[in-house]
């Protein structure tokens, strides 16, 4: 035995209006299949640019220290500067590359691959 339904929606004082769904649309609408435009993570791209520039600067300074154009301290100062420069340069370059390819529309690259800050 099926439970009886309340006729509260049919009363004239009800503020809720119901309409019957068409049987021909199968429950799908065109809007659900359209992709929204990508959200560009400007903060993350700015951070990647800063990391890229700082890493490049540290790598250049480390190379100049090794070759002796800056100071005469030797490798004990140059190697740590190079290592830190490489560690800062790599994530900046990686995320800038993804942002560039996503902006050009290359297949397989999107702004969703760049981690964004929670606003």
What would the keywords be for this entry?
transmembrane, 119 residues, mainly alpha
The end-to-end distance, rounded to whole angstroms, is: 52 Å
Protein structure class: mainly alpha
Oligomer: single chain
DSSP helix fraction: 40-55%
pLDDT < 50 runs, ≥5 residues: none
User: What's the count of strands?
Assistant: 0
* Mean of all residue-level pLDDT scores: 81
Over the alpha carbons, how many angstroms does the gyration radius reach? 29 Å
> What is the makeup of the main sheet?
none
- Topology as H/E string? HH
Fraction of residues in β-strands: under 5%
Number of separate helices: 2
Shape: rod-shaped
Q: Can you walk through the features of this model?
A:
With 119 residues, the protein is an all-alpha fold. The protein has a domain at 45-110. Helices cover 47% and strands 0% of the residues. It has helices spanning 42-67, 75-104. Helix 1 (42-67) runs antiparallel to helix 2 (75-104). It is rod-shaped and about 90 Å long. The two termini are 52 Å apart. The mean pLDDT is 81.
Note the topology.
Blueprint: H1 42-67, H2 75-104
Helix pairs in contact: 1-2
Main location: cytoplasm
Organism: Eleutherodactylus coqui
Protein name: Transmembrane protein 230
